[in-house]
C-alpha cells in the first residue's frame, strides 16, 4: 500500500448573505465542502449533517468506497429526518463535493465524489480541469444543446440544482476514481467560488508556489472582491509525495 504526504488548507466567507450556510471538512482522508439550502436554519443544519456524517469515516484503518457512499446516504437520511421532526426544517438540503483517499482492490486512490453543483477541480504538472459534472439545470441545458457552454456561467438559472442531499429522489453520490500521484492538487469548492472566479484564474492560483492555505484564502478573497453574492468555501489539497 503506497504512502502519501499531504498538505491542505481551507477558507470560507459569508459573502453578501445574512448567514454562512457553507460547511467544510479538511481532515485526512476526507476533504469536502457542503453548500446548504432551504432557509437559514435549515440550510446550515443540512450542510452540517453532511459534514458530520463524512467526519464519522475519519480514523478508520482503511476507508473504502462503500463506506464513503454509506456516509453520503446517512447524510441524506439525516437531513430528511430534520423535516419530519421539525416543520421549520422542511426543504432542508445541501450539495456536497469532495475527495477522499480510499482503498480499492488493494490500492490507495482518490475518490472524487459529489451531489449537486459544488465542484472538484484537479491539477497535475501537466493537466487541469473540473472533475465533477454539475447536477444543475444549466448543465442539462448545455448537454442538450440549448445553452452554449460559454454562456453557462452567466445563465439566470445557473443556481438551480437537479440533485441534492435531503431533497428529491436521493441516490448515491457520483464518484470518479483517480490514481494517486505525486504532484496532484485538488480544489473543492461551493458555487459561491466557481461563480465568482473564472476557471482560468482558479487554475493559475492552484498552480502557484503558495501553500494550500494561502491559495484557499486568496481564492475566497478574490471571490469576495468580485461580488461575493453567495457564501464561499474552498478546500485545497496537495499530494506532495507518494512513496
The profile of the biggest β sheet is: 5 strands, antiparallel
What oligomeric state best describes the polypeptide chains here? Answer: single chain
- What is the 3D shape? globular
**What fraction of the residues are assigned to beta strands by DSSP?**
25-35%
Number of helices: 6
Protein structure class: alpha+beta
Number of domains: 1
CATH topology: Phosphatase 2c, domain 1
Main-sheet strand order equals 1-10-9-6-7
Q: Round the Cα radius of gyration to an integer and report it.
A: 17 Å
**H/E series, N to C?**
EEEHHEEEEHEEHHHE
Taking the alpha carbons of the first and last residues, their distance comes to: 9 Å
Number of strands: 10
The assigned CATH architecture is 4-Layer Sandwich
- Approximate helicity band: 25-40%
Which helices and strands, and how do they pair?
Blueprint: E1 4-13, E2 22-27, E3 30-37, H1 40-55, H2 65-85, E4 93-104, E5 107-115, E6 119-123, E7 128-130, H3 137-143, E8 174-179, E9 185-189, H4 191-194, H5 199-206, H6 212-225, E10 232-242
Antiparallel strand pairs: 1-10, 2-3, 3-4, 4-5, 5-8, 6-7, 6-9, 9-10
Features:
single chain; about 240 residues; alpha+beta; Phosphatase 2c, domain 1; five-stranded antiparallel beta sheet; 10 strands
Outline the structure in words:
- There is one protein chain.
- This protein has helices spanning 40-55, 65-85, 137-143, 191-194, 199-206, 212-225, and strands at residues 4-13, 22-27, 30-37, 93-104, 107-115, 119-123, 128-130, 174-179, 185-189, 232-242.
- It is of the alpha+beta class and 243 residues long.
- The chain has a single domain (10-242), classed as Phosphatase 2c, domain 1, CATH 3.60.40.
- Helix 1 runs antiparallel to helix 2.
- The longest helix has 21 residues, at 65-85.
- The termini are close together.
- The relative contact order is 0.22.
- The mean pLDDT is 93.
